[in-house]
Design a protein that fits this description.
Layout (H helix, E strand, L loop, with lengths): L1 H15 L9 H30 L8 H12 L8 H25 L9
């Protein structure tokens, strides 16, 4: 949900700063807005995925407070963001592609490009 909203908002922001002759750059706006949304999605979902990974790491899943304490003791708040770079490359690329394809399908169906109206 958040990635879709950030994609829409970034596309609208980019369109609002384009001159009237540059409105045919829909694919550039779509790719840039999608990349921005994917970065946000990766950063905001990383802590939750870190908690899930840590929860099911051992044979017996730990409780939520215990898992959070383990992560914090191991490296503080920054420990929640371990692996973010790999996530940005892998998941970020997938999300960017999904959002660009979403925008292309919308336009093929005759709907306006995301953020252009």
């Amino acid at each position: 949900m958040a990635k879709q909203v950030s994609f829409d908002m970034m596309a609208a922001f980019l369109y609002s700063h384009l001159k009237s002759g540059e409105k045919d750059l829909k694919w550039v706006v779509s790719v840039v807005a999608a990349a921005f949304a994917s970065i946000l999605a990766c950063i905001f979902s990383q802590p939750g995925d870190m908690i899930l990974t840590e929860t099911y790491k051992g044979k017996n899943p730990g409780s939520f407070p215990v898992v959070i304490n383990q992560i914090l003791k191991r490296g503080g708040m920054s420990e929640f963001f371990v692996g973010t770079q790999a996530r940005l490359i892998h998941v970020g690329g997938i999300i960017t592609q999904q959002l660009v394809m979403y925008d292309i399908v919308k336009q093929v169906l005759g709907l306006p490009a995301t953020g252009s109206h």
